Amino acid sequence: MQFAAVEKPKRCYAFPMDVSVPTPPTLHPARVRPVSARASRPRGIYDLSLPELEARVADLGFPAYRGRQIWKWAYRQLVTDYLEIGNIPSALRDTLANDSPISLLEPVRAVATDDGETIKTLYRTADDQVLETVLMLYRNRATVCVSCQVGCAFCATGLMGLARNLSAGEMVAQVVGAAREARLRGRDLTNIVMMGMGEPLQNYVETMKFIRIVHDPAGLDIGARRITVSTSGIVPKIEALAEEPLQINLAVSLHAPNDELRSQLVPINRRYPIATLMAAVDRYTAKTGRRVSFEYALMRGINDSDATAQDLATLLRGRLCHVNIIPLNPVDVLPYERPDPEGIERFAHVLRTAGIPTTVRYSRGLDIDAACGQLRTNELGLTTVTRAANDAESGGPRHLRHVGK
Ligand code: SAH
To answer: Which ligand 1 atom is the nearest neighbour of the CA of 194?
Structure first.
């Protein structure tokens, strides 16, 4: 079997696609069937807003306030089973348990880094797709990295092509799962980044619905300013986002300061080149007053020269922005490498000297393949040298502590 996304990029928004790759390993055929983004899928409680849940409960012949009670059990107590819900009539509970499951995702496996600060969970959907979510515990915040599509034209996950959009409820389930993991460790989940598998602005309607659900003050109550949507640069949707009432953060995967290079790394650039993208970002900033983050995956010999850093600084000068440099997480079948630490620091230094606020974001969870779809990739039978590379970096294999089933 060939890699669909490499052979024939269908909807590839992100890097790196235009490369020749060694013969790909065989994928697990049962797991790679493409399904339509609109395939009819079961909808669970997490797919409903609070008013929709109240309406559903009323349709079943119960007072609407019962809906609010269930909402609180789901998002305050974080129950994932109707049996744990105490104060609602069993007739309502049984009906809902039959036709509206709480979670549609089944946790398959969870692994934590040695320090326990990064926990990655692999989930299986009702239609047997596999996806992953990462919880990162910091001193003063706990952030979940949510997937919004199964597969995606990205790195390890992208090699399988896009399988389908996730529903709002499937995204909510990842957040509740992370909130439960955080709570087990005495922590509250505080932040959400849409930087897992998938392109959120390609799944716009469900993504926005998801954001409204997790933002609801009667439920998870995650502040809009603590939610970040990361996009490869789908201009019309950036414009739509600027019109949304919620003041969420926008991150744009830039990765290159000129069209020639960016079009190679991020194919959507051919459709929305840098000038068009920047104009949309400027309108977004003007409209929202919010600072935009630019992500820049640093790749040795590709986009990491001093001259490229200067070009990037020139492009961004005068803009209300921030650059997040992400040293590349190597993916075995792609011929890109991470620069050495001096190269990374030098690149950041050029930007900072030019007055561009810059952070180097060392990925968490490399030892558990948490960086970019790699746990899922392994689950599906793709080999990866990422683990080996990381072992080499850290002086030997690190112990994987299984924290889930
Ligand atoms: N689809 C969204 C989210 C992608 S993940 C987007 O395009 O923005 C978040 C960031 O990680 C993106 O900037 C993405 O380009 C980057 N990324 C993906 N694979 C990576 C890898 N192997 N190493 C470093 N960064 C990577």
So the answer is: 3
